[in-house]
Amino acid sequence: NLQNPNDIGSVLVPSPEINRILKGMGHSGSRIWVVDNHHRVLAQSGSIHHADGVWADGLKEEPATTWWQRFEQDYLHPLYYKILTRPENEFIDTLHDVAAMQGTHIASALNGKPASSWRLTPDNKAVILSAAYPIWIQDKVIGAVIAEETTNGVRTLRNKSLEKLFNVILAVMLVGTVTLFFFASRISSRIRRLRDNAEQAIDAQGRITGKITYADSNDEIGDLSRSFANIVSRLSGYTDYLENMSSRLSHELRTPVAVVRSSLENLQMQPQSELSQKYLDRASEGVERLGKIITTMSEATRLEQSIQNAEAEEFDLTKVITGCMQGYQITYGESLFTLSLDKEPLNVSGAPEFIAQLLDKLINNALEFKTPQSTISVSLTKQDQHAVLTISNQGPLLPDGLVEHIFDSMVSVRSQQHQQQPHLGLGLYIVRLICDYHHGKVLAENLDDGTGVVFTVELPIK
Description:
It is rod-shaped, with a radius of gyration of 52 Å. Helix content is 46%, strand content 18%. Among the domains are: 7-50 and 89-150, PAS domain (Beta-Lactamase), CATH 3.30.450; 311-460, Heat Shock Protein 90. It is of the alpha+beta class. The strands form three sheets. The protein has a five-stranded antiparallel sheet. The protein has a five-stranded mixed sheet with strand order 7-9-10-12-11, covered by helices on one side. Strands 6-8 form a two-stranded antiparallel sheet. The chain is built from nine helices and twelve strands.
């Protein structure tokens, strides 16, 4: 039996009225305690584990309803949270169910001074902020209210703000990338268009065949296109002058050459000493050489004019080549040529007299360059839809760097021992003109064994 009432303990029963008041004040942001002035817990509301630490509903996760929200949750958030850290909701809370609470902030509140304190959970996963405020009745503190919340709300707010910031950065980067791509594409397309115009204005042989359409824009590319157009225009005038120079020279030189020739003929009709006759013979030889040069220049000019005015007709290429080669065999001897001509008719659209002239230039070229006692091989075959004519001879090889330009005007690779006749480099130029007229192509190559040169002409078959 206990005789002294002070030895009897006390039983603390939470007040229903206080619980109702706390439930009315409770929210998802924090946990609230009410203690008396003996630090005993009178009531509790809320759970610190499920508290987001923010007194607002703006952080509640809502289900994705739009395509952007679904894209953000499925793709952007996993990327963002490789850098960001999510708040931990699972942590150890030693005060989740206690009958009495201790702390300097509670002691200060029971003394009438509000106070707060920070504490770290035992597992170091969360930081909890506790704020205590005194309860006054008639100027007497009878208890305190303690509100607790974690820093998860602040971290969540930070993550939300960084998510929006990252979204803005991605949007700016996307807009900037698209803008730069569009700008770069526009510049590159204008440069490609200028390149195509420049390439179309000049053919494979370097002749000016068109004009560059310049742009009216005031930027650097527009200025470059205008400069190109001006350059091509001036080059076109200069190349026209060069191309017509042979016809002008031949026309202008015919009269003085005729005067010199007639004067020499008149002098030869007079009695001359042996020394004077020698000089007259040299002068006559020079005049004849000059006449051949004029004839060659006139031939190229006449051929260009003839090609421009010629009308294409269908003819048998095999028959033309066979007839021409029979004439060469009669003139130079059958043993000089090795023939391999296809007997099948090869119908080609063009002018047979031009083909004969082409063959004449190539045969003369082979005769001048071939080595003594060697033969000239001539073959005509059909490959796919093309007639292929090849003329090869043993002799000096083509020099490096001139293979692609050997068919240009005024280009010759003859050495001094091959200059017995005047040459202006127009023979193979005429060959190329004739091939272009027949929509074909001509190619000069060194033989694989390094003993000579082969010329290949390809013409399309009708």
